[in-house]
Design brief:
The protein has 52 residues and is mainly alpha-helical. The chain is 62% helix and 0% strand. The structure holds zinc ion.
Amino acid sequence: MCIICIDFERGALKASEARRALGEMRPTLDAKHVREVEDKLDEAEPSPASTP
Ligand SMILES: [Zn+2]
């Protein structure tokens, strides 16, 4: 659980905003947690960038 999860789950961040915040926070977060957050965001709002 990090600031992104907290803000996203209380509705302060949209999935697209959380994804951008994740990009900035990534170096400070555990790689495993980054994956968890990405999965959570993909579930909430499929990323247009992730389509082949
Ligand atoms: Zn988190």
